[in-house]
Amino acid sequence: MSHREVLTALSGLLMGMLVAILSSTVVSTSLPRIVSDLNGSQTSYTWVITATLLATTVSTPLWGKFSDLTNRKVLLQVALVLFVLASVAAGFSQNTATLITFRVFQGLGAGGLTALVQVVMSDIISPRERGRYMGYLGAVMSVGTIGGPLLGGVLTDSIGWRWNFFVGVPVGVAALIVIQRTLHLPPKPKKAVVVDYWGAGLIAGGVSLLLVWVSLGGKQFDWNSTTSWLMGVGAAVLLALAVVVEFRSKEPIIPLTLFKNRTFTFAVVASLSVGVAMFGTSVFLGQYMQLARGQSPTMAGILTLPMVLGLLISSMVAGALISKYGKWKPYMIVGSILLAAGLFLMSTIEYDTNFAIVSVFMAMMGLGIGMVMQNLVLVVQNSVDVSVVGAASSSVAFFRSLGGTIGVSVMGAVLGTKVSGYITDGLTDAGVDPSALGSGGSTSIPDLSTVPGPIRTVIESAYGQGVADVFLIAAPLAVITIVFVCLLPNVELGTKTGIQRAAASGDGAGATAGAGAAGAGAGAAASDDASAVEKGVAATAGLAPSVSSAPATTTDGASTPAPTSPVDHGGDDETVVDPADTDTDTGSHTDPKTAPHSAPHSAPAAAGRRHHSHATTGTGTIDTIIATGAAEVAGHPVSDDELAESPVFSSLVEEKDVAADR
Q1: Helix H or strand E segment including 575
Q2: CB of 167 closer than 8 Å to CB of 21
Q3: What is the DSSP string of 25-75?
Q4: 237 φ, ψ to 5°?
Q5: Of 155, 168, 364, 591, whose CB has the highest number of CB atoms within 10 Å?
Q6: How far, in Å, are 626, 636, 637, 654 from residue 569 at the CA level?
Q7: CA distance 56 to 102
């Protein structure tokens, strides 16, 4: 695909990702009015947010695994349709129970979009080029995460809270149309699909119970209570059983063998802390702006723009530099350091800190997250086998969301405790009874517009200090990100798309289509930019035994004719000598990028077969060897197993695999 074609298809993917992110963030500033209009309780307030986060987090690895087993484009469209329908239904809700139910379905659709957009990008864009496109994706995610609350506040104040749900519908429909018309993926080969139902159920149940426990603990029930112990132990048991089932499953939802890959393991750990920073800052910055600075919901969103701009700029600039120079690790290290520094500096703010200084700290956090977040997915996709790229990509997103959800819940509990203590101490020092704030005392959130000036100052100071304490808790997690980013193996980015990798490895319809085309005589006309290995595999399907006039060197140094194969071009028979065979006088093959060397290989002569030796290890040599190897196997497509069984070519199989991986 050309750059323009990629951008056209990518526009549909980015629109889908935007509405998925907005579904989780757009209601945050309008929830008080939504719950009030629907006559909901505090429990309903909590579940409107928790339901979507829970469904998104739990479903992400399931969508990713299904994308490895079946048609990714269809799955992406199913997720979009599910999201759009659930959004419309949520907007027409007449009570909180209905709203929560449709928020669950919104979360399921959002989980599919979160997982599948990045997987489809790996299909159509090579890792080397994917950096700049990941920058676009990171910019969209950051704008959706930080800008969602601003949009929600504006919509609620102007045309009503129901438009928080309707606003994403036109974008979702447009994304569906664009994807249908511009995204063209080869079909998956037909095979029996084995679904790990037990693993899916145990993972969903265990993670759901864990998230409900950490989200409601300390609010709906005490941490040291029977309910809390039952939920905590139950989550641990379910997740332990999930690990056992995943080890035994033929097609595990989260392949545990991925953790043998250092890049994947280190990226997962780093993504946990990035999730805490990303989700936590969007939640607690809003509280800081409204409760410590006394701003309206709309202004609170506007005042977080420095962080949004930092995310936008760094994700796009770093992505473009990665694609241009092929180096990713320096930018990720710098980004993780900026994130840690920004969090530490945010832990020093107070309710009256100069806003210019706060803006600089927010911008540093934004720059850091933009350099790290999407590039973690990029390096994982670059390092895992193409057959599990869906599961690997979605697993990184899953652990990022899991870390963010748990981190926000824990930090929220800490914030509540800290603020309560600060308010009580401040009022006591001022000679005011804390009960003067109302029946809730220091544990409730008063309406600041109705509070006398001195008491309002105490409350704003308490929230300023409390939010600073929360950032101080998150800062050590960012240090963990620095450590594990530094430990990531500095693997060179590949230059093949996921479709090309699948074709080269024989996994997927791409390989089948290539072999069929070669059988019709198209093998010799492979495109110039295809890899030598892919051309060689394609050529073998239509080759028959014959002998070329081009000499090849025998093991004893004599020159003998080397075998080539006739290729049918519209019925005219002609002998085609492999273009990689540049030295027809000696039979050696010279790769212009590598120094030639001799690597003779011999086999017993039988049934007219000759001894061959080939110089150099360039991809041109591999192309020639695989193509001429068709003469040894009676003209049918040559597989790696057949090459491995042949004494002539067995020593070259490993070299071919290495070249294919690169």
Answers
A1: strand 575-576
A2: no
A3: HTTTTTHHHHHHHTT--HHHHHHHHHHHHHHHHHHHHHHHHHHHHS-HHHH
A4: -65, -45
A5: 168
A6: 20, 18, 18, 33
A7: 13
The ranges of the chain with pLDDT < 50 are 439-443, 508-620, 630-636
Q: Which of 32, 480, 469, 477 is nearest to 284 (CA)?
A: 469
DSSP count for the chain of H helices, then E strands: 23, 6
Coil, helix or strand at residue 594: coil
pLDDT at 449: 63
Give residue 233's pLDDT.
92
Cβ-contact 459, 288 below 8 angstroms: no
- HEC assignment per residue over 150-215: HHHHHHHHHCCCCHHHHCHHHHHHHHHHHHHHHCCCCCCCCCCCCCCHHHHHHHHHHHHHHHHHHH
In our burial notation (b when 16+ CB lie closer than 10 A, e otherwise), range 610-624 reads ebbbbbbbbbbbbbb
In 336-394, the DSSP E strands lie at none
pTM above the 0.85 mark? Answer: no
pLDDT tens, residue by residue, 563-611: 444 444 443 343 334 433 434 343 344 444 444 444 444 444 444 444 4
What distance, in Å, lies between the first and last C-alpha atoms of the chain? 20
pLDDT of residue 447: 59
- SS3 category, 634: coil
Q: Are the C-beta atoms of residues 599 and 613 closer than 8 Å to each other?
A: yes
What's the rounded Cα separation, in Å, for the pair 634 and 611?
A: 17
